[in-house]
Design a protein that fits this description.
2 domains; OB fold (Dihydrolipoamide Acetyltransferase, E2P); alpha+beta
């Protein structure tokens, strides 16, 4: 059952990366095994902890930022390059392609979204 939970978590993460809204997995194991993780995660693992990345593209018309990022611990995602929506269009003016950044991302409703971003110092 542990392998099934791991497969469900991996499938949900893959669908989220593709922009699909993953169905929430439910555990039917009544022997104390933990349920699969929810697709909605907190903004950051701990207060002040941000992920690192490099902006590849800022799409103001589409309200998206493409980031080549390291692991996103709070979303259980490995390093990759992907486009994120932004929760506030003002974030699009804070960065440009090539900027090294620190950012927080969430997955509300299956839509990977940058909720905070700053140019790394």
């Amino acid at each position: 059952m542990k392998n099934l939970n791991n497969i469900l978590i991996a499938a949900a993460a893959a669908m989220a990366a593709l922009g699909a809204a993953p169905a929430q997995a439910q555990s039917h194991d009544h022997h104390g095994a933990p349920a699969a993780k929810s697709a909605v995660k907190p903004v950051a693992d701990k207060a002040g902890e941000l992920s690192e990345g490099e902006v590849r593209k800022v799409d103001k018309a589409g309200k998206k930022i493409t980031v080549k990022h390291g692991p996103l611990k709070n979303l259980d995602m490995p390093p990759m390059t992907m486009a994120f929506q932004v929760n506030d269009p003002a974030l699009l003016d804070k960065v440009k392609a090539g900027d090294k950044v620190r950012f927080a991302a969430a997955n509300p409703g299956g839509k990977l979204t940058i909720t905070q971003i700053e140019v790394a110092k």
